[in-house]
Amino acid sequence: MANKFIVFEGIDGSGKTTQSKLLAEKINGKYTCEPTNGDIGKLIRDILSGKKCEKETLALLFAADRVEHVVDIEQHLKKTHIVCDRYVYSSMVYQAIQGIDLNFIMNINQFAKKPDILIFLDVDVEESFKRMNGKNKEIFENKEMLNKVRAKYYEIIKKRLFEPKYGYIKINTTGKSIEEVHDNILTELREKNIF
Ligand SMILES: Nc1ncnc2c1ncn2[C@@H]1O[C@H](COP(=O)(O)OP(=O)(O)O)[C@@H](O)[C@H]1O
Ligand SMILES: Cc1cn([C@H]2C[C@H](O)[C@@H](COP(=O)(O)OP(=O)(O)O)O2)c(=O)[nH]c1=O
């Protein structure tokens, strides 16, 4: 069977980094993330931490970072599964909320390879806020914004936008331990006959 390209999405504090790393380890895959650790990804992080930038520029930077990332993903997929922490869906959510037209977002991301599956980690906004307590807050991390982001993810899934080959898996993580969520993910992937 061909190697799989799996994407994790969700609001900040939903457990994406924790769960994508756990899954990558479990399936002997490669963990990767966006923004990447490349030059464009570093510039994006400076902007998210407060460096001034027009929202259109930021949308283009995320797309540019993704161009480089997709080349890397294609290379690695020849050898192993890829587990990706945020992808084009984050642009469809966050940049759209910032007021960028969805058609424009899809246009500048048209090279983005479709993943096999999207795992959406859902969480109560109050709980995500507690999980992130003490961490540096970036521009998108306040409760009002988290609610908007969560609603936008629901919209994408409902409208089946950029639907992956095996569709979407939505997991409610509220009140669940890290191990429990990991088990839920493995069960859902098995049910879809992905592994
Ligand atoms: N199911 C969970 N229950 C409690 N804490 C969690 C859970 N999943 C993750 N965390 C903790 O919440 C914080 C944010 O998790 P992280 O994986 O970085 O989320 P994200 O990448 O979605 O922002 C981390 O400190 C992590 O250890
Ligand atoms: C990939 C991507 C991320 N983002 C935002 C979402 C996050 O708030 C921020 C940085 O992500 P990151 O700090 O990795 O997220 P998390 O706190 O969930 O681990 O970048 C976009 O606005 N557009 C995008 O295309």
TrEMBL record:
Q: List, alphabetically, the InterPro entries matched.
A: P-loop_NTPase, Thymidylate_kin-like_dom, Thymidylate_kin_CS, Thymidylate_kinase
Q: Which residues bind ATP?
A: 10-17
One protein family per Pfam: Thymidylate_kin
Instruction: Give a yes or no for keyword Methyltransferase in this entry.
Output: no
This entry's Gene Ontology molecular function terms read: ATP binding; dTMP kinase activity
Q: Which NCBIfam families match?
A: DTMP_kinase
The protein depicted here goes by the name Probable thymidylate kinase
Organism of origin: Methanothermococcus okinawensis (strain DSM 14208 / JCM 11175 / IH1)
